[in-house]
Amino acid sequence: MKNSLEHAYDPENFRAEGHKLVDFLADKLKQAMSGEHDFVLEWTEPDEAYAQLDTFLDNPNELFERTWQQCIRLHDPRFMGHQISPPLPIAALAGLFSDFVNNGMGIYEMGVAGTAMERFVVKTVARQIGFDEHADGVMTSGGSLGNLTALLAARSRKAKTDVWNVGTQEPLSVMVSDQAHYCIDRAVRMMGWGSEGVIMVPTEDFRMRTDLLEAKLKTARANGRDVIAVIGSACCTSTGTFDDLVEIGKFCERHDLWFHVDGAHGGASMFSKKYRHLVDGIETADSVVMDFHKLLMTPAVTTALLFRDGNAAYQSFSQQAHYLWNEAETPEWFNLAKRTFECTKTMMSLKVFSIIAKHGLDIFDENVTRLHDLAAEFAELIQTQPDLELATEPQTNIVCFRYVGDESNRIPLANLSEVNRRIRYVMMTAGRNYLVQTTLGDELWLRTTIANPFTSRKHFDDLFKELRSVATTILADVS
Ligand SMILES: *Cc1c(COP(=O)(O)O)cnc(C)c1O
């Protein structure tokens, strides 16, 4: 009889369970892609999900089957909710491999393969941006952390005082559109710059009004703020609208400000020949964040953080510039933790590298282009239906719209948010289609992200059909 640790590590058990799990997931993938099942999400109330874990513990051999029941299914073409990709099978397998070898990546010998691959991925993204050979960067755990890390480098480069050593002396600020992701505000407050640390630039059609930048800067300076950076959203999260990166770049150049592009979502457009123009100007940025898990079929979280001047990457967590370092303390590109907040980090580079190795870089173009095209088609369909209203022309794969009632029976403006909130909740808990919601101004809108390349016209029609049927029930309830 083996003791329990020996049993737990038993290679033959691993082999048998691994084969079983891959077979199970392959069946689920087939099912999802063929649309031969009922639900994209089998809704469970939080307390119930927690209570059910007792049955999980009593049935360890059914652990993955039971867990699957409570997982939202990204490979189902009816998944049109949040900004996350159905991962490619090869990338999911890379994830398994990475979890198994558990190479910590912080220092070189703890991740030889992963470190070389990270350099490859970073250089690939740099080329795609249009940066020259001075560019460099790292991979990090999510766009939020990437944005913070970029802003720390910006602070090192642009603040007048040595904040790293003496603490914040000056009232530092960044300028960003009022549609920016909340993580920017959070990063700024974490750095101790307070609520005034973010200067909101108003938007028009969800796009930063770059014509207001000069005036905003003047006012901020008059108020004693030391503005060090402007952040362009590429794109903003709510509607997927892109800021004018060319104009922001020129403004930053003129005023010697750091230009950061939050391309967590839409930075991926750089891989699409057809949609590359959305990020025109990105090559003038000082730093760029781009998530692989949102549009590029990579498991979460996998983020690239790029610096036009690669030396800046070494300044996020130190005031010292790498060009000042002597030989005893070289930049050492291969010791990645010098440039990341993480000490131990997952081998995320393998996930991206496996996609490029197996399918070629062009698969990113194919996916991004297809998803953008699908979103445009979806938006056009919305515009032909009088009971639906499109919030704004989509630029990426994010489409916001709402149900407004048929022409003979318009829902009063004051009730629109509540009706749409209820439509969305009923649809989510029914689990046959999945979409989300967002607030634009003070109003609640339905929000979709066309994340699955196999979503098609049929799924759009099914979504509209269910939406109308739910709306009818809700409206009958109200009256
Ligand atoms: C998703 C998103 C983020 C946050 O990225 P995570 O990878 O979820 O941390 C930041 N900015 C924008 C514009 C985003 O769309």
Please give a structural write-up.
By secondary structure, the chain is α/β, with parallel strands linked by helices. The protein has helices spanning 4-8, 11-34, 46-51, 53-58, 63-69, 89-101, 112-129, 143-158, 163-166, 182-190, 213-222, 245-255, 292-295, 348-359, 362-383, 413-430, 457-478, and strands spanning 136-140, 172-177, 198-201, 203-204, 207-208, 226-233, 258-262, 287-291, 303-307, 388-390, 398-403, 436-440, 443-449. It has a seven-stranded mixed sheet with strand order 1-9-8-7-6-2-3, with helices on both faces. Strand 12 and strand 13 (443-449) form a beta hairpin. The radius of gyration is 24 Å and the shape is globular. It starts with a helix and ends with a helix. The mean pLDDT is 94. Bound molecules: pyridoxal-5'-phosphate. Pyridoxal-5'-phosphate is lined by residues 83, 142-144, 181, 183, 233, 237, 262, 264-265, 291, 301, 303.
